[in-house]
Write a structure and sequence with these properties.
Beta-Lactamase, 6-stranded antiparallel beta sheet, 6-stranded mixed beta sheet, alpha+beta, about 15% strand, single chain, 5 domains
Length: about 725
């Protein structure tokens, strides 16, 4: 209170005493008491007026400090100074939340004792994040303070917490009174302050962001040798301010005010659709909310191949943007690197690596078997090309069988790139697709491309020669012309039918010539059997024992590929579906290695082969379930033979998912058609009844004409 105020008070109270003591103009005690109350009310009102003036002045000063603050810390320092007289606090702290956790660091404090204090978020701080101030008068009971030292607790009998929340900052203003409490009026003041402080904080953050972006842009232009340019409008125009490296990339110095389309995109290998998408993205982004860019940025290609002055260049592109004061995207920044040298080195290294891998794959197989296989692949690919102009549903079934055979045979010879490529094509090829013809043609091109890689290496290893390809590969074992072969066959037929008494030497020569054109089945299937080792590893099984029983008859070479293809499917089918894993076999008391037995028997003019394994058999229950779902069989059907025969149906599989080994329902259908092409057949023979798990033992029985085998004259 000022001296003037004191004089006023004294002058007001003095005469009352005089009147009372003088006895003149006396007043009653009640009136005197009432007069004193009026004086006191005037004093309180005067005090409130003074406090309000101080508050208003502090608030005005605080607002001035907020508008003039150029950093987050200066905002809070000025604010604490402005509120010192208004709140009459003993200590103040500014606590900032750690963005990575639930801890608050003491950013600013008026008492050094709190400099190193870290505050763990409790119930009070969590409530503060709802945006309203809180007064705490029982400080020691809060989660945030209960574990503090008595020394610190003694400094805070009452606390006013004010939350300030922005995009970048979560801040709590903490005002401490040591010997008194904060009033409700202080909370009201805090409620008025929160939007003002928050607004100032947000403006500062925006300014900081603009400064950072400006610095980043300048740094880019002065950085490592990269091309940096700015697209300034929806038309794709390039700003005059671009880095010198852009001149080197585009081999011109006049790109300013040109469009990114004529400078870069129109010279690229991008499709019309890709260019259109990029153009649309730039048009909807520049001048609009940055969200448009974020949503459509995947349309901006990050690697572009361009032809500049008859040279191919590979440009690595990174797209970013700058926003204006309204958070609208004002410019798109394109950072470019010429990675042509690196790309060429990578492609050369990749090609060398691929070539070495192919070398390794080809050398792992015996030339005696590999060369005919490569020629067989060539023929099958040629057959596939023949269907391009006649892609009906029937031919599509044949195509799928050929593809499945290529994949299986490629796996037999560990030609992994070829088998995996065909596997992916099998997965994507669907006759009902609207553009199936285009897909088929591109798939064929891909298969040819991969096979060409194998051919190039095979030629270097003298394993393949395009000139030697013939639909009949008998010449691989003996070089006989067609006339000689025909004469030999005629002579052989005469010998076997008439039993002419010829000299043993002549018979021996004839026998040798015929054997040069034939091969025992176990040898003919050598590579197919060998491939079971790799498949076994993938299936977590042991390599099965393959046993040949009965009379063994050499098969003529011209039929060898058909038997290889057929038995390749049967081997993989047996290993994948029939034979159990090692652990299961041991639990069942079986040998850890599965057993596959092939028996040969001559009867009349046919040769019968049986194929069986010692696995769990056919999952008849599963086959029936799939058959019913596909409307192939009635749900009441209990005929094991009828149910089992569904495995020969095109595109039928008991698998729920497709693997590289099985699941497409093509393998057994392919076997049927392979054998049919040489007047042969296959049937499935169930053994016994279906067990409790739904499985039934079985074997395959195949019938072949006698003349595909060589029977020497006795």
């Amino acid at each position: 209170m000022s001296n003037q105020d004191e004089k006023t008070t004294n002058s007001a109270s003095g005469p009352v005493s005089e009147v009372e003591s003088d006895g003149l103009n006396t007043v009653s005690k009640e009136e005197a008491e009432r007069f004193r109350e009026i004086i006191l009310d005037l004093e309180v009102a005067k005090k409130k007026e003074i406090e309000q003036r101080i508050f208003s002045e502090s608030l005005v000063n605080g607002l001035k400090s907020l508008t003039s603050s150029d950093s987050t810390s200066s905002i809070f320092l000025n604010l604490l100074e402005s509120l010192k007289d208004v709140l009459s606090f003993d200590t103040a702290m500014v606590l900032k939340k750690d963005p990575f956790g639930v801890l608050y660091d003491t950013m600013i404090t008026t008492d050094p004792i709190f400099d190193e204090a870290i505050w763990k978020e409790g119930k009070v701080f969590k409530r503060l994040m709802k945006g309203k101030p809180i007064v705490i008068n029982s400080v020691g009971k809060t989660d945030e303070w209960k574990n503090r030292s008595d020394e610190l607790k003694s400094l805070a009998s009452s606390i006013l917490y004010i939350p300030i929340i922005s995009k970048e900052n979560h801040v709590i203003l903490s005002f401490l009174k040591k010997d008194s409490n904060f009033a409700n009026s202080h909370k009201e003041l805090a409620l008025k302050l929160i939007p003002l402080v928050t607004s100032a904080l947000i403006n500062t953050e925006k300014n900081d962001l603009i400064k950072e972006k400006s610095k980043a842009t300048q740094a880019l232009f002065k950085s490592l040798p990269v091309g940096v340019l700015t697209i300034i409008d929806e038309y794709g125009r390039i700003s005059p301010g671009y880095s010198n490296i852009c001149d080197e990339i585009f081999e011109r110095d006049d790109i300013a005010n040109k469009t990114i389309y004529e400078v870069l995109l129109d010279k690229s290998n991008l499709s019309e659709e890709e260019r259109s998408m990029m153009k649309s993205t730039l048009e909807v982004s520049i001048g609009n909310d940055e969200l448009n860019f974020d949503i459509n940025k995947d349309c901006l290609v990050h690697e572009i191949t361009v032809e500049i002055n008859n040279r191919i260049k590979y440009i690595d592109c990174t797209w970013s943007y700058v926003t204006d004061d309204n958070d609208d995207l004002s410019q798109v920044i394109l950072v470019m690197k010429d990675v042509t040298i690196i790309k060429n080195l990578e492609m050369n290294a990749k090609n060398k690596s691929k070539e070495l891998e192919i070398f390794s794959q080809l050398l792992s197989s015996e030339p005696e078997y590999l060369t005919p296989a490569l020629m067989d692949f060539q023929k099958m690919i040629s057959d596939l090309k023949g269907f391009s102009d006649n892609l009906d549903r029937e031919n599509f079934g044949i195509i799928k069988r050929i593809l499945h055979t290529i994949k299986g045979n490629a796996r037999t010879f560990t030609l992994d790139m070829l088998s995996s490529t065909v596997h992916e094509i099998e997965s994507s090829l669907n006759f009902d697709d609207q553009n199936v013809s285009d897909i088929y043609d591109s798939s064929l091109s891909l298969i040819e491309e991969v096979f060409e890689d194998y051919k190039k290496v095979a030629k270097k290893l003298h394993l393949f020669d395009d000139a030697n390809i013939d639909e009949d590969i008998d010449h691989l074992t003996v070089d006989l012309d067609d006339k000689t072969k025909k004469s030999l066959d005629t002579l052989y037929q005469e010998i076997t039918s008439n039993k002419k008494n010829l000299d043993e030497g002549v018979l021996s020569i004839i026998h040798s010539l015929q054997m040069s054109r034939a091969q025992y089945l176990n040898k003919a299937l050598k590579m197919s059997i060998k491939s079971l080792g790799d498949i076994s590893v993938n299936l977590d099984k042991e390599m099965p024992d393959v046993v040949f029983t009965g009379e063994q008859y050499p098969i003529f070479t011209k039929y060898k590929s058909i038997l290889e293809d057929s038995f390749g499917h049967l081997f993989r089918n047996s290993l994948d579906h029939g034979l159990e894993t090692t652990d299961v076999r041991l639990e069942l008391g079986k040998s850890k290695n599965g057993r596959i037995e092939i028996n040969t028997k001559l009867k009349d003019d046919r040769v019968f082969l049986t194929f069986k394994d010692d696995g769990k058999g056919l999952n008849v229950s599963k086959i029936k379930e799939k058959g019913v779902a596909a409307n192939c069989i009635d749900s009441n059907c209990d005929d094991i033979q009828k149910i089992s025969n569904l495995i020969f149906k095109p595109e039928f599989s008991s698998r729920d998912e497709v693997t590289i080994n099985s699941g497409r329902g093509v393998g057994m259908d392919a076997v049927v058609n392979f054998l049919k092409s040489i007047d042969s057949s296959i049937e499935l023979i169930p053994l016994g009844e279906v067990n409790s798990e739904g499985f039934c033992k079985f074997y395959f029985k195949m019938s072949f004409p006698k003349d595909i085998f060589y029977f020497p004259v006795s």
